[in-house]
Design brief:
- By secondary structure, the protein is of the alpha+beta class.
- It has one domain: Dimeric alpha+beta barrel (Alpha-Beta Plaits, 2-Layer Sandwich).
- The protein has 2 helices and 6 strands.
Length: 137
């Protein structure tokens, strides 16, 4: 079962608050994330993961009436924002819950767990493509 784990950072002014942490706290947090990702890879549960730039660098894009891109933003003031994501492939929903809780507890200032919100959503599988060649013919 594939899931997307999305880590949401609380309150935003357009920049990550992690930039204000001590170098030691920042390094401990990054080491935790690298270790977490390594364990996922070694267990064969990692599909993909990426960290994202802060919202001050984001744009909303829509197609205009002529089909050309129309952008809006950036939107530096946010209640919370997506900081990064993982796509995992696990045997059960319970395992996905365990992993989401583990990454939620990443260390923050002074090593205290951040307990950040992690949204967990199943990844839908696509219906079969009727135009694809059949292997059963």
């Amino acid at each position: 079962m594939k899931y997307m784990m999305m880590m949401n950072a609380p309150r935003g002014n357009g920049e990550y608050q992690i930039n204000d942490w001590s170098p030691e706290d920042f390094q401990a947090h990054i080491a935790f994330m690298h270790g977490f990702n390594r364990k996922l890879s070694e267990a064969g549960e990692m599909v993909a993961c990426e960290g994202l730039t802060p919202p001050a660098q984001a744009k909303l894009v829509r197609a205009g009436k002529d089909g050309r891109p129309v952008t809006d933003g950036p939107f530096p003031e946010t209640k919370e924002f997506l900081a990064g994501f993982w796509i995992i492939d696990v045997d059960s929903p319970e395992r996905a819950y365990e992993l989401a809780a583990a990454v939620s507890a990443a260390p923050g200032p002074g090593g205290a767990p951040l307990n950040m919100a992690v949204e967990l959503r199943p990844v839908m599988s696509a219906p079969p493509d009727p135009s694809a060649p059949s292997l059963t013919r």
